[in-house]
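Sequence in, structure out. Go.
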Amino acid sequence: MAKTTIEFSPAADRMLEDMTEKLGTSKAEVIRNALSLYAYLMDQLIAQPAFELAIAQKADNKVLKAVVVPGLTQVASHATNVVSAAGL
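Output:
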């Protein structure tokens, strides 16, 4: 397994510590899971640029809030531009 060193701000490190405590896992596992989720969301937004990320109520799929993830908005925008430029 590759090893990477990451520097976090104190606030980000506190968030990471909080997540490890809530999940009962290591910082590395939290980061791996977050990266997997981010990659999945990015792939979905590239495949379907018209999609948006949202939190919906289970019972009726009513959207409760839109979720803006830094970086993913640009991915979706770029994918839309590529599709438009290709005439698809």
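Check: The chain has one domain: 10-86. The helical segments are 10-23, 27-47, 72-86.
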